[in-house]
Structure formats: C-alpha cells, structure tokens
C-alpha cells in the first residue's frame, strides 16, 4: 500500500508543478500591476498602488480598441451562428457522395493558420470591394474585413458545436409534428430551434470570445483600424508598462468570476437533477407497493 | 481596375457547384418518387436562406479568398496603376525567390533556414506538449474523482481567457534580463550576470508550449476518457507494469486523440505570430514573421502570398504524412 501512497503523492506533485507552469506567469504579472515602478517588476515590491488601473482606464487607444473588439465580436456572432446552423442542417441533408467535399471545405478554415486566413481575406476583398466606388468607400475598412476573416473560421466552430447536438435530434419528433399537420418551417421554428438552443448559446459565446481575442487573422484584416488585441500588441512591441499587467488582472478576475459562477450553477443543476431522480425513484417504489397491495 | 487572369478563379467555384448540382439531380432521379426534394423539405423561404448563408460562407469567405491568394502569388509585384496592365502576367518568380535570392542569384539560405527552423521547432513543441500533458489528461480521464476533475478543468481553462499577447507579455516579464527568474538566479548566486533567455529563444520555445497546452490536454482527455477502466484493470491483474499498460493499452486506444492534439499544436505553432514576435530573439526569423514583414514593411503582397501558400502546403503535407505514418485517418482527427 505504501507504493500506492508514493504514486499518489507523485501525481499530486506533478499536477502542482503543471498548475504552477500554467498560473505562475500570470501570478507574477498580477503582482506587477500593484507595484509602483514604471517597469513592471514583481520583486522588490516597493509600494502598493492602483495607479496602473487608472492609467489603463485613461488609455484612449485601448478603450477605442475595446469598443471595436465588441462591435466585431457581435457582428461575427450575428454572421457565424446562422451560417454554422445552416451548414450543419445542410450537412445532414446533402447527398452522401458530396458530404466529404462539403465537410472538407467547411472545416478547412479551422486547420488553416490564422495568418493565411487574414492575408487571403485582405487580398480578395480589397479587389472585390474595389469593383464600385460605393462598396469601396462603405465596406473597405478594418472592421468589415476583420469580421469577414474571423467569420470564415469561427463559423466552422459553430457548425461543429451545433452538429454535435443535431446528431442527437430525434427524427421521430419531426415526423410526429409533420403527421399532425405542421409545415416544415413550423417544425424548424417550434421544434428544431428550441432543441438546439443550448448549442446555439454556447456557439454564440465561443464565437464572441474567439473573435475577441483573435490576433493572427485580425492583425492583417484590421487595416488602419484597431482592436483591443492589436493595441495591446503595439504596446508590448514598444516596451512594457504595468498598465498591461493591470489589464491582465482585470481579465483574469472577470474569467475567474465567470468560472466560479459556472461551477455553482452546474452544482445546483446536478443537485436538482439528483433530487428529481430521487423523487422519481420514490414514486416508482410507492406505485409498486400499491400494486402489490 | 485589375480585370485580368484573376477573374478566372471565379469560374472554379461555379464549376464545382455545377458538378454538385448534377450529382444531386442524378441521385434524386434514382431515389424514386417517395423522396422529398431539398425545397420540399425546408420550405421555399428557409431553403433559400440556408442556401444563401452556406453559399456566402463557403464561396465568398473560404474558397474564393484562398484561390485568389494563390492566384495573386503567381503575379509580379506592381504598383496599383499597373495592375491589370500588360506587365501583369502570370509568373513563378515569387516561388523562385524562396529558393534563389533574386538580387544576387545565390541560394536564399535565410528564408530556407527559417522555414526548416519553424517546422522543426513546431514538431518539438508538439512532442513536448504531448509528453507533459499526457499524465494530466490520463489523471483527469481515468483516476481523478469527478468533482476534482471538474475543478481541475476549470483551472485549466481560466488562463486561456487571457489572450495570447498578454500571456506572451507575462512570460516576457518572467524571462527578461531584469525579470524574476534572472533575479532569483542571481540572488541565489547561481549566475553572476543575467542570462539572455529571450535572445537564446528560450522565451520562444516556452511561449509556444505555454500557448497551446490546453489544445493538447482536451483531445487527449476526450480520447482516454472513453477507454473502459476494466481494460486497464485486466492488464494490471495480468501483471503488466504501469509503463506497459500505457504503451500497449492506453496509447494505442487514444491514438486518434493524440494525433488530433499533436496536429492542432503543430499547425498552430507553425502558424503562430504572437510568440515569435514578442518572445523571439532579435535575430530569430520565424516563417510567419517573414510573411508579416512582406505585407507591412516591404509591401510585397505577391511574395507574401507565395510564402503563405508554401507554409500552408508544407504544413498540410507534413500532417498528412504523419497521419499516414501513425495510421490515423483525417476524419478521426477533426472531431
């Protein structure tokens, strides 16, 4: 039994090292956000300060970038979720022989390096939008191009997420509705969409987050505009300031809160599910007892 | 207006769609009268909307940009007013320039070396990440309790909400010559002066590995998770030592997941821009950084497009070769 204990200690030790590797750099960055020196430094810790958070708040370019990031993110969600949904429905209906090629075309952007997606988006749309003066002046800008470039691969994520749930869709429900006289659009709106709701929500969340933190595609497609990430990239290239550490602290705090909220929700849901299960078992037992009596 | 050979690419998707349509017609004809057609099934309005959405995505956001980039790479670099003019001919000069430097006529050793270096480092990063993530994935999938696994999983995800650039920034703070690790090494008296981790590309390697840890953990976890625990018990009961259980039971079973994780990490690493830009040494040439410079410093788009295409083809070829070697099909990888 002692060898087992040693093994367990080793596993624990390994996990601790792994988590240290994962969190160590972020932790150190977090400390530098509260230290006074203008070069982000964790040690020696001079005085506690919040001035870098104020500097972050007053950083005009970053705030403009943040606004652009949110706009692009929402636009990507509005494009990618419907496109992913349509593609996953068509994937089910398309003729078997064509399915392989269709899958290859739609999934290829996931495997293509983001840099290449950005480049091809810019090269193509620059000429395509130059066909008329109106399209050139209205649509040829970083926000539109970044949205299009990101949507090309984020739609594939959405399609994969939605397809996974669609595979569990019970065709019998559709048949039943049709037999009862529902039309196909009615089946889509009242049965299929509610069934897909969780998948649609997670696709939207993932689409927004992916768009928000994308760098490789955006840095090419954004042209003269900027997003939060490209502003940060410019800052890091010029040198380092503790305001960036402050930003990292803000993001980590938000995501930790999100993670904790998710965990609490999940636990509550599980508790409810087990309570329902218990109630069901109890009812079952009672029914059997009555039957026996 | 650049109207030229470029517009020929428009015909390719049209041709493919026509082939699709013909295949669909033939198949529909052989299905018999009981089968419902596409518009019958979805209704005219929804059917049209689906078709338009999928068409816009696949044709205008995926196929045409790729094809157009490839066509652009077969053109000379010209000022905008000369595009579409008589000098705008098809040429392989951009691809030749990858092998032979146009100005001197010598081998283009700098770019060739950068290419080999990028591929080589990416392979090592994928292998290294597999080695350090496998124990974690195995623990989460087979031996951890459910609650603990979920907490661990949340912990793994949280750092990934912080974007790539800020993570590179965090590593830079640690590894810089004034950084914490150098302070610790000097404080402990192990070294006298700071070690130039960033100049020696240690920062680049750590940055790439750090950036794609999660990409490796999840496919591995998913693959190992579905392995029946009884198989491991059986192997153990029959007296197999732990390393043999992994070599002969777990790893063969998890092969699709391993292939998927390694493929993703390799592709992401070879195409990464943030780590080499922010953590690489000043003399390091990463292939995507070269492409970046063609676009933003020398404004040579055709050559940048050619290099991007070379990278894409090389990566795909390499991945397919590896999948063939390890006998895993592509369909199993993307899931």
Detailed description of the structure:
Chain A is mainly α and 293 residues long. Chain A has helices spanning 2-32, 51-57, 60-93, 96-111, 114-129, 133-139, 142-166, 171-179, 184-212, 216-221, 228-238, 242-292. Chain B has 335 residues and is mainly α. Chain B has two domains: 5-91, no CATH class; 109-333, MetI-like fold. Chain B is built from 17 helices and no strands. The mean pLDDT of chain B is 86. At the A-B interface, helix 1, helix 3, helix 4, helix 5 and helix 7 of A face helix 1, helix 2, helix 3, helix 5 and helix 6 of B.
Layout: helices, strands, pairs:
The complex is a heterodimer of chains A (293) and B (335).
Chain A: H1 2-32, H2 51-57, H3 60-93, H4 96-111, H5 114-129, H6 133-139, H7 142-166, H8 171-179, H9 184-212, H10 216-221, H11 228-238, H12 242-292
Helix pairs in contact in A: 1-12, 2-12, 3-7, 3-9, 3-11, 4-7, 5-7, 7-9, 8-9
Chain B: H1 11-31, H2 38-42, H3 44-73, H4 93-99, H5 109-143, H6 146-157, H7 164-175, H8 180-187, H9 202-211, H10 213-225, H11 229-237, H12 242-253, H13 255-270, H14 274-279, H15 287-296, H16 301-325, H17 330-333
Question: Key terms for this structure?
Answer:
heterodimer; A: about 290 residues; mainly alpha; MetI-like fold; 2 domains; B: about 325 residues; about 70% helix
Short description:
The complex is a heterodimer of chains A (293) and B (335). Chain A is mainly alpha-helical. Chain A is built from 12 helices and no strands.
- Count of discrete structural domains of chain B: 2
SS class of chain B: mainly alpha
Main sheet makeup of chain A: none
Report how far apart the termini of chain B are: 43 Å
Instruction: Count all strands of chain B and give the number.
Output: 0
Number of domains of chain A: 2
